């Protein structure tokens, strides 16, 4: 089987050795950004920016905005979700926030309190950065290490 350049790069990023993981008992306060898939079983307070698939385990909690290509949710999210492809809410999922996604699967038992927008438009993309976020990034770029 031939592997083309784009496929090879994707395979390198999504390989098992590049899977990120936050285990039960771990907590992060701040923004989390990754190009590869991630499994969260701990607590994240802040924005999650995932360039691949996000899996939130049954004990996982997110208090903030989630941006991802795909997501499979078993835990609790208090915040909005922006999923560009497929979002799966498992039976144990609890979502308190708005959802924007291309495709949505909700298992019996999942809880969802918020609005849902589906389709392929711009609304499924990451929300625009606030003025404060833009200013903070500019300050960070001005720092010399």
UniProtKB/TrEMBL annotation:
Basic and acidic residues bias (residue ranges): 119-145
Domain of life: Bacteria
Region described as Disordered: spans on this chain: 117-145
Pfam families linked to this entry: Bactofilin
Family classification: Belongs to the bactofilin family.
Protein name: Polymer-forming cytoskeletal protein
Species lineage: Bacteria, Pseudomonadati, Bacteroidota, Flavobacteriia, Flavobacteriales
């Amino acid at each position: 089987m031939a592997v083309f350049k784009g496929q090879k790069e994707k395979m390198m990023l999504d390989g098992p050795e590049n899977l990120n993981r936050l285990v039960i008992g771990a907590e992060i306060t701040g923004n989390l950004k990754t190009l590869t898939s991630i499994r969260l079983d701990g607590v994240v307070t802040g924005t999650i920016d995932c360039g691949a698939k996000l899996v939130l385990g049954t004990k996982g909690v997110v208090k903030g905005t989630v941006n991802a290509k795909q997501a499979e949710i078993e835990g609790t999210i208090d915040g909005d979700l922006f999923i560009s492809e497929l979002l799966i809410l498992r039976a144990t999922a609890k979502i308190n926030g708005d959802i924007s996604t291309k495709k949505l699967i909700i298992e019996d038992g999942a809880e969802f309190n918020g609005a849902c927008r589906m389709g392929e438009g711009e609304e499924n993309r990451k929300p625009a950065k606030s003025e404060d976020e833009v200013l903070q990034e500019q300050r960070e770029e001005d720092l010399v290490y």
